[in-house]
Amino acid sequence: xxxxxxxxxxxxxxxASVVARVKRLVKAKKVGHTGTLDPFATGVLVxxxxxxxxxxxFFLHGDKTYDATLTLGIDTDTQDATGTVIGEREVPDxxxxxxxxxFGRFTGEIEQAPPIYSALKHNGVPLYKLARRGxxxxxxxxxxxxxxxxxxxxxxxxxxxxxxxxxxxxxxxxCTDVGQALGCGGHLSALCRTENSGFSLExxxxxxxxxxLVVAGRLEDVLVPMTDALPRMPGFVAGRPLxxxxxxxxxxxxxxxxxxxxxxxAPEAEHVKVLDDAGNLLAxxxxxxxxxxxxxxxxxxxx
Length: 303
Fold this sequence. Notes:
21% of the residues lie in helices and 33% in strands. With 303 residues, it is α+β, with helices and mostly antiparallel strands. The chain has three domains: 3-62 and 198-228, Pseudouridine synthase (2-Layer Sandwich), CATH 3.30.2350.10; 64-196, 2-Layer Sandwich (Pseudouridine synthase); 235-299, Archaeosine Trna-guanine Transglycosylase, Chain: A, domain 4, CATH 2.30.130. The strands form four sheets. Strands 1, 2, 3, 4, 7, 10, 11, 12 and 13 form a nine-stranded mixed sheet that branches. It has a five-stranded mixed sheet with strand order 14-16-17-18-15. It has a two-stranded antiparallel ribbon with strand order 5-6.
């Protein structure tokens, strides 16, 4: 029961509720998600089962793609459709060029202030709980990357768009910022995550589909093995002597891991994965700044 499940989260459920339901369905001891979706949102929720929960952190900061709808002219306290309206303004007769220019202001590496209604914590308390108590806390802006915004449909006051962004990006804050840039305000009124760290909506499962597969004894048909869970991470194969050394946590070098490379091809990667000679995921290592050694991130028994 070690691997990755790609779930299509339904609206109206928290990510924690989805985790709890999957845990009951598959009778797994450990299940964890790799980045929440707000209850009203839908789409790709990557879940890690068993030992694969140790891989969750490699998905948290991965790039994600969202299909979102911005409703202009209405501001809410939560920056989305679940909140209380705190302001309304007339929406001007905007052209597609106006909208493209506004979205263009929020692409690339930018600073984004997290919303006061979010799961981020202040002194151990989630911000949304503090906000509901009437003591909102504004966290300082964080650097995020919006790779691109692509307008799909314009039906004012609604604008549907695709966005590709780094982990930690709040699409509802992006909608609020674009609305402010246009001078009329706005909020996020619909959101679907269509891709997360290489896993797409097309390969995701509904909870009812997962239940039927479990009943039919076919869970393994849809469980992504740990070996295939990190498709974009550079990989290397360790022979038995080196695999033994890695399992024991002893220091290793690039020369041992990739003896055929005069200059390592992956030191610029944040992490690299190592497979044993049977093709099982053995470890995830971090290239060291000296370009010679590798430090340990996590090690598996290879079975």
